[in-house]
């Protein structure tokens, strides 16, 4: 979980789409993972390859990322 305050937990950090439930947001985020550009939801850094983004999460944010962003 990002240590960001506020009630933005159900809002997509990439396109600001507002989800009604966590499950909905999770499904929504899958649409982004299918795009060519993978964007860090913490600092908006973009990578062509999802593996590069996963490494970025680990190195920059000390986050472990599993498929579909389900464990963030
Ligand atoms: Zn989105
Ligand atoms: Zn980042």
UniProtKB/TrEMBL annotation:
SUPFAM superfamilies the UniProt entry points to: beta-beta-alpha zinc fingers (SSF57667)
SMART domains: ZnF_C2H2
GO molecular function annotations of the record: zinc ion binding
Name recorded for this polypeptide: C2H2-type domain-containing protein
Taxonomy, superkingdom: Eukaryota
InterPro entries reported for this sequence: Znf_C2H2_sf, Znf_C2H2_type
Gene3D superfamilies registered for this protein in UniProt: Classic Zinc Finger
C2H2-type domain boundaries: 10-37
UniProt KW keywords: Metal-binding, Zinc, Zinc-finger
């Amino acid at each position: 979980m990002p240590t960001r305050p506020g009630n933005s937990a159900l809002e997509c950090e990439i396109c600001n789409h507002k989800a009604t439930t966590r499950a909905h947001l999770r499904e929504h985020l899958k649409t982004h993972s299918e795009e060519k550009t993978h964007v860090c939801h913490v600092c908006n850094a973009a990578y062509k390859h999802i593996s590069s983004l996963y490494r970025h999460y680990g190195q920059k944010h000390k986050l472990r990322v599993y498929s579909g962003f389900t464990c963030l």
